[in-house]
Design a protein that fits this description.
Order of helices and strands: HHHHHHEEEEHEHEHEHHEHEHEHEHHE
Distance between the termini: 55 Å
Number of strands: 12
Shape: globular
Number of helices: 16
CATH architecture of the largest domain: Alpha-Beta Barrel
Number of domains: 2
CATH class of the largest domain: Alpha Beta
CATH topology of the largest domain: TIM Barrel
Strand order of the largest sheet: 4-5-6-7-8-9-10-11
CATH superfamily of the largest domain: Aldolase class I
Radius of gyration: 24 Å
Strand content: 5-15%
């Protein structure tokens, strides 16, 4: 090979390396479309700011204490959790537009900090239904936690107890409400997936009353089937025999959900609640003394109906992008619900929370508290209970830092004027 050809080959290899380098990835637009000779001249143009600590999914932490942010747990969980189990948690539906929008929509809102305020002491506590919690961060209801760690929801409850956080148990949980209440050694809320039969919900409500559950969330945004493409594709990589861990029946069946133990399903036509109307809320009022929150509200019209039917709280959520692929991030739904309900009933929020600044924005836009789902499941799958504890500790620490920088010594000081929509 001639000297000129060697030089040409080396130049192409250099350019290929530069194009793939994470160190220069932020500056790709400088040279990505230039011809080769122009690329060489532009190599000296660096992004500002430079990326000095690029990360890749191969940079796995070996211990929860090594985590710098909650994202550090996700690749570890991916490495440890069986592909089908991880995929179920990670999936959105269809094109996953809403799944992505839950994150990118936070970038549409910018913070407006206030200065010269005493923030030497920060109080993150909130009160809901007569109970004061040290933090507005809640462990959201998520199903089948034993898919990520053998202790499942019990490990999550223990982490909640240690950190002083509220946790909400899902009716899709792999652990019983009694076991979770015992592990939490304190208040646990419950989230209901209703079936086509009100009688089933009635029996569950009575069991929750006996267990001392004070609040029940009724999910209203899961009415039919869904195309979870990420789940379907990753599941093909899982060569295990499903019967090895789904010993009580098909994955996701009622036989795997302890909350349904002892309930007669003879007259149940469907496990979905596609026949649910507002009358369901009225009837549930006659069954239980629990406070009732409606989970899955995204419009002011439905918020007004929540108030009309006397619900005790509203949970703004698009199910983490797992119900419909409508495209709107959940944070964009929050202001219109707050316009109707703020100050009248507590407003919970979830979908896309990953940072303390995300939590701050949600609180400023009207949320009374926020629920975190996937991040603590990453921690659970990566390191069990210690992983959940560390995820929650990181989010709490980031929230405190955000409140100090914004000039808000307590949650009541966080007001709408501290957030502005910029796009």
């Amino acid at each position: 090979m001639s000297h000129q050809k060697v030089q040409d080959l080396q130049r192409r290899q250099l350019l290929a390396w530069l194009g793939a380098s994470p160190l220069l990835s932020m500056g790709k637009d400088v040279y990505a479309q230039d011809p080769a000779n122009e690329l060489v001249r532009n190599v000296a143009k660096r992004p500002d700011p430079m990326i000095w600590t690029p990360t890749t999914p191969l940079d796995l932490i070996a211990d929860p204490s090594q985590a710098i942010n909650v994202f550090d747990f996700e690749p570890v969980a991916f490495a440890k959790v069986p592909p089908a189990h991880f995929a179920y948690m990670a999936s959105g539906i269809d094109d996953e537009v809403t799944l992505r929008a839950n994150r990118t929509s936070f970038l549409k809102y910018s913070l407006r900090p206030r200065r010269l305020r005493d923030v030497s002491e920060i109080d993150t506590s909130v009160s809901m239904f007569g109970t004061r919690w040290k933090s507005p961060i809640i462990l959201a209801p998520t199903g089948g936690n034993k898919a990520y760690d053998p202790e499942g929801e019990v490990a999550v409850a223990k982490a909640a107890r240690k950190g002083g956080f509220l946790n909400i148990l899902s009716s899709a949980a792999a652990s019983s409400i009694e076991d979770v209440v015992a592990a939490r050694q304190g208040q646990v809320w419950f989230q209901l997936y209703a079936t086509s039969s009100f009688e089933v919900s009635k029996q569950i409500a009575k069991r929750l009353d006996r267990a001392g559950v004070p609040v029940m969330e009724i999910t209203v945004d899961r009415n039919g089937g869904r195309n979870q493409e990420t789940f379907a594709r990753l599941r093909r990589l899982d060569n295990r025999n499903c019967a090895a861990c789904h010993t009580h029946g098909a994955p996701g069946s009622r036989f795997e959900r302890p909350i349904y133990d002892g309930i007669d399903f003879t007259n149940v036509k469907s496990m979905s609640s596609s026949n649910m109307t507002w009358d369901f809320i009225r009837k549930m009022r006659d069954v239980t003394q629990m406070k009732l929150i409606i989970k899955g509200i995204q419009t002011e019209e439905d918020a007004e109906l929540c108030l009309k039917y006397g619900v005790d709280g509203i949970h703004v959520s698009n199910h983490g992008g797992r119900s419909e692929d409508g495209g709107r991030g959940a944070i964009e739904c929050l202001p219109e619900i707050a316009k109707v309900a703020k100050g009248k009933v507590p407003i919970l929020f979830d979908s896309g929370i990953r940072r303390g600044s995300d939590i701050f924005k949600a609180l400023a836009l009207g949320a009374s508290a926020v629920c975190v789902g996937r991040p603590y499941l990453w921690g659970l799958g990566a390191f069990g209970q210690p992983g959940v504890e560390r995820v929650m500790d990181i989010l709490q620490t980031e929230l405190v830092a955000s409140m100090q920088q914004m000039g808000t010594p307590d949650i009541a000081s966080i007001v709408p004027g501290m957030v502005i929509k910029t796009s």
